[in-house]
Amino acid sequence: MAKTSIDSTSFTTIKWMDSIVNFGSIVKGEKITIKFRCINTGDKPLIITSAVPGCGCTVADYTKEPILPGKEGAITASFNSANFSGEVHKYITVNTNTKNAPETRLSFTGLITEEIGSNKTVEKQLTPKK
Phi/psi at 10 (nearest 5 deg)? Predict the structure, then answer.
């Protein structure tokens, strides 16, 4: 796992628009994408150094280029519900060059239901409300 620089002159601050998302109910086998947005509230470029999912059912991607002060970045979580039933609680650990919280845990929850006779894959794009 990548660690942020110890050089405190490069630290900034971050605000997460949503760090917890409930995606509601989906049918087992559906795939969803959840976007967690953040804003650089400091005066130095914000650098996301890693975004590590808690398990193999989730793939995480993130803004790779430095996020300038006042600008937005994002972590995107792609979750495959094929091996789950019932209520799920998943997370992504994010590392940044922020002074007070260099490691943040973003989480998403929801309900996976069974649908008899369904073999479909559905892509859903969820973006938390502002």
Answer: -100, 5
